[in-house]
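so ive been stuck on this for like two days lol. basically i have the seq below and the ligand is copper (II) ion, smiles is in there too. i just want the complex predicted, nothing fancy, no docking runs or whatever. if the output looks off dont worry ill sanity check it later, just need somthing to start from for the group meeting slides
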Amino acid sequence: MTIIMYKRPASLLYLSILKITQILKHQNMSHFLKNFLPVLVLLVLMVSCQKKEKETKKQEASKDYASYVTTGDLTAELTAPPHVPKPVGNRDAKKLTVEMEIKEEEGEMTDGVRYMYWTFGGSVPGSFIRTRVGDEVEFTLSNHPDNKLPHNIDLHAVTGPGGGATSSLVAPGHSKTFNFKCINPGLYVYHCATAPVGMHIANGMYGLILVEPEGGLPPVDREYYVMQGDFYTKGKYGEQGMQPFDMNKAVDEHADYVVFNGKVGALTGDGSLTAKVGETVRIFMGNGGPNLVSSFHVIGEIFDKVHIEGGDLINENVQTTLVPAGGAAIVEFKVDVPGTFILVDHSIFRAFNKGALGMLKVEGKENAKVYSGTTQEGIYQPEGGTIQEMPTSGKKEEENINKSLAQQITDGKNLYSRTCFACHQSEGQGIPGAFPPLAKADYLNANVNRAISTVLHGLSGEITVNGSKYNSVMTSQNLTDQEIADVLTYVYNSWGNNKTRVTAEMVKTERAKPAPKHKDIHE
Ligand SMILES: [Cu+2]
């Protein structure tokens, strides 16, 4: 009988019922009993056995950690992001002392933008806490005497009223101690739950607590702590100076900043995460909210494993994982090739316009089998063979060689509004944290050959423009010498720049030089 071949009892049962009803229509009852009753009995037995097996498994998983006996004491190591404390390994469950201090501290949201952060342990997100199932945590929450407000803590790893919030409300200059048992393994968010709760969270009062299973999580080469949060300021994104929290925007869920680890660029440049080719990276990814859900993605990587929502269930081969506000996920992946891998909230305007962008820099040997970069670039001629040359060479150049300055500026302006405008913006003002300004730009005015080279070959790596750091990628612009001369002449003769005139000859000289080497960027 073919149905026996199906492995899953549920579908088996369903198929047999189908079969049986079919047979009943055509044959008499005694025939049915003789042939199919034994099969049916067998099936029912199989299904009930499976059910029992499941139940015992479930019991094992929730082994009664509520009454699990601890051996010895330990003071928890707390770390600031992106670092995490040492794995628990196979240590026994212990009485674990956690001491955390709340600090209200001014910090930098992005270049020139100050923000008053409220923090657990002096960082956003707050200190990472690492425990194991069965640990009995003695948690002391201190509110620094310089702080202005009372605070408390609600840990999602706690089984008890308010997740600890009701026991931990503490005024400035005081401390509170409460105890809880880690009963369920998983990665959990903690946050302040003092009214107005949304405001305390919006100011950075969240972090992660990991409860490892017995024996610990499987070892990996690198572990990192990343947490997303959305921020609401009186001024728009990038508006300079001290920016107070904006309650109306928060209620409307109109975030000005969506960032990893508390500020724009926390995980770029010197803050980038690092790894070597061949290593396995584990990211403990949380989302403090207060409002937005994260579509967490690493450009150029696939998560080999995701502990969905920070729980036991593991999904494999995942491109983007959803991390809810007040939720978490553990993602793991092996890095196979070198390059810069970009961490984003794939609600993508948040990444490129609101700050939700980080970097993982991987060093090591190329592996052309896995990824080989551009292997060929050819001339594409959709109209057939009429265009016989690369557009940069020959006649076209000669035709335009005697343009007046005014003509160059007009043509350059035209070109600018077609190609550069999308990133550098209409008045060359750029976008803070993403695209450097070309208006009154010291970097541009300092070196014309460098500017020509940028448009010719593209640019990546850290640069400083008008005192602000940029660490992003400009792709090479496929333009002729004359076009590059025109667009740069337009830029140099606009918005307070130094009125340099760039000629096609200058671009030609620059093109003849070898192109600068760029780090490989996987997008
Ligand atoms: Cu608070």
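The longest helix spans residues 29-61. Residues 118, 151, 192, 194, 200, 205 surround copper (II) ion (CB under 6 Å).
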